[in-house]
Amino acid sequence: MVKAREYQEEKEALKAAEEEAKLQRKIKRAANTLKNKLEKEKRVKESTKKKAKAAREKEAKTLAVASKKTPKKQLNSTTPKAKKAAPTVLKQTKAPPKTKAPIKVLARRSVVVPAQEVVAPGVVVAKTSSRTITLPQHFG
Length: 140
Hints:
By secondary structure, the protein is mostly helical. The protein has a domain at 1-69. 48% of the residues lie in helices and 10% in strands. The protein contains one helix and three strands; from the N terminus they run αβββ. The protein has one helix at 2-68, and strands at residues 117-120, 123-127, 132-136. A three-stranded antiparallel beta sheet has the order 1-2-3, with no helix packed on it. The longest helix has 67 residues, at 2-68. The relative contact order is 0.04.
């Protein structure tokens, strides 16, 4: 009976060890897949950076080559050339003056004062057809 119990405990311990090893393998597999996924993303990111850098360098080279190209020298001709006319400077035309809107004068009521009346000492009031003019006495 003791042997059977020992055998059973040994069997259970072996089964538990197998379960533990299985669980460890499962954890390791999941960790490896995650690690591989992160490494793949990193490689993709680096490759895109390299491609972009290579494209920028290639474009810079093409621009440098294009700017370095010098035009071919033209042979000096011995035929007389017509002189170029001096550049003409256009006169700036004066802007037309802005027309002012006519000032509307509202009809005012004038105070009707009898002609040649002395309002204050030395002041004479004279009436014209449409308005009243106050003149000093020495003008009147």
